[in-house]
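Box 3.1 A note on notation
Throughout this textbook, protein chains are presented in two layers. The first layer is the amino acid sequence; the second is a token string describing backbone geometry. Keep the layers aligned when reading.
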Amino acid sequence: MVTAGSRGDGMRRANLSLVLRTVHREGPRSRAALTEATGLNRSTIADLVGELQRAGLVVERASDAQGRVGRPSPIVMPDPRVVALAVNPEVDAVDIGAISLDGTVVVRERIEQPALVTPARVAELVAERLSVWHGGPLASARIVGVGAAVPGPVRAADGVVREAPHLGWIEARIGVMLADATGLRAHVGNDAALGALAEYLFGAARGAHDVVYLNGGASGIGGAVIVGGVPLGGAGGYAGEFGQNRPGIADAADRRAPDGVLEDEVSRAFLLEAVGLEGGDDAVLAAALASTTDPAAHAEVDRQRRILATALANAANVLNPAVIVLGGFLAVLAAHDLEALDAAVRTQTIPACTEGLRLAVAELGEDRLLVGAAEAVFEAALFPAR
């Protein structure tokens, strides 16, 4: 959509991308501030902003500056009518939303599922919501694509979900199905990798360059790593499967699953069971844990936090991140007493790797995976390859 490249002008295309990326990721900026941020001169910025306006990617509004000498520089902001659809299928529900280029969650719905959804059913649900929203919140939207955040390894080369075991998907071509159902370009990624991207760009890891992210959902625990500002994909794009590691459990009494992996021991299902719930989102779980007086429920929280602390310490020792971000039900576990969890991680991490280390819960909350999926769409549709 940044079209200067069609005229063979690679430098201009890169500069258009730079300006658009700046206001998208850093927020509205005056032309003067864009000049400073990009290093481009004022006349070049004016020309680029004009082209982005004509392409329907940015809008300008009057500056709020009052009492200044001279004409105030107009404020450049992403056009909120540019929108990406996003979907996150899980074992108990499908979350579908629309995220605008200015970061607004325009609309989102959680559709509870009585049984496991197939890839075809997910595509059908997205198409149904799109049809409804076209007559309402997306009536004036320019939809540039649809992104899917899936709880399982996704092959980077073609977006095929190799296996989403809790959903029962194997070699699922969900991207093709979404594209056929909506008529939009589709982009598929691992849910934790996309959640990490969202928190890195807009949330708890903003400003950090080395990040470990763990996401806890109904399907288990996924993860992602960002090194030097670059997502660590691995040879096939499958890096970050922390939930499949064998956990270190010091007290045998803490083990619930013989020879289980981390996600077998640190489990949303166990937490729901402890507070007597059959289902519910993370907000419902957090409220139930906060209000319970049942000693057994508190004991389960403490057990899972002990195992999680060891897993996080292992990650800190191996990867030396600046920040570890926890999302989903892991954020619920952490927020129960973040300071104590931080201390438990530090006691098992070599001192050098604790210097500057910060433990944080995801700031984007329930929107993090949809925001990450939308970002994958924007990156592919609006910014040229670097």
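The mean pLDDT is 92. The two ends are 15 Å apart (CA to CA).
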